[in-house]
Every structure is written in structure tokens, then in C-alpha cells.
Amino acid sequence: MGIPVTITKINTAKIIDILVKHKIGPHLYLKEVKKHILIIDNKIKHQGYSPSKIDCINAIKAMEELLSKLRSTKIELNEEIKNKIYKEL
After folding, report:
1. What percent of the chain has pLDDT over 70?
2. 17 lies in which domain range?
3. How many separate domains does the chain show?
4. Position 4 in a domain
5. Residue 3 included in any domain
6. What is the rounded CA–CA span in Å between residue 22 and residue 19?
7. Per residue in 61-86, pLDDT tens?
8. d(CA 31, CA 19)
9. The pLDDT of residue 9
């Protein structure tokens, strides 16, 4: 997406929300990653949640499936979407 790797504290969840809302790329897989990784990660950081074995399995599976889809998908972002994403940085 052309985001420099030196930019820290990127809100990944908001970027995924934008992509899912506009059905860009493998949006269903992105939605699953948000559900099984980002939401759990937030609970771990802010509520001291300890993920169950099934939480961990689902998180790994969601990420494996997303990575597989991303390897075979070219994501095209128009200027409006790029601007929405850049605004979240």
C-alpha cells in the first residue's frame, strides 16, 4: 500500500475496516483476521485475556488463509481509498 515501514503505531484494524467496508481484496479473509487476531490481541493487551487453545488455532488458521489469498490477489486501491487509509496513519 506504499506505507513506509518506519511509521509506527499503525492502526491495522482501521485499515482492515476500510478494506472490508469497500470489499477490496480478500475482504472476507481480512474480516476473519480481524475477528480472530486483532480483537483477541486487543483483549489480551487491555483486559489481560489469556487466549484459549481454540482461539490460537483459529488465529493461526485465519492468518494462513489470508496470506495464501494475498499471494494470489493483486489489490488495486483508488485514490479515495488510499486517502482514507493514509488518514488513519
Report:
1. 99
2. 12-87
3. 1
4. no
5. no
6. 5
7. 999 999 999 999 988 899 999 999 98
8. 9
9. 82
User: Does residue 60 lie within any of the structural domains?
Assistant: yes
Locate 75 and state its grid cell: 489489490
CA angle 44/55/74 to nearest 5° reads: 95
Are 16 and 30 in contact by the 8 Å Cβ rule? The answer is yes
Amino acid at 50: S
Grid cell, residue 1, equals 500500500
Whether the Cβ atoms of residue 50 and residue 64 lie closer than 8 Å to each other: no
Cell digits for 71? 499471494
Cell triple for residue 35?
Answer: 475477528
The C-alpha cell at 12 is 491495522
Q: Please list, in sequence order, all residues whose beta carbon lies within 8 angstroms of the beta carbon of residue 47, skipping any fewer than 6 positions away.
A: none
Does residue 1 form part of some domain?
Answer: no
Residues 62/36, Cβ–Cβ less than 8 Å: yes
15-57 confidence digits (pLDDT tens): 999 999 999 999 999 999 999 998 898 899 999 999 999 999 9
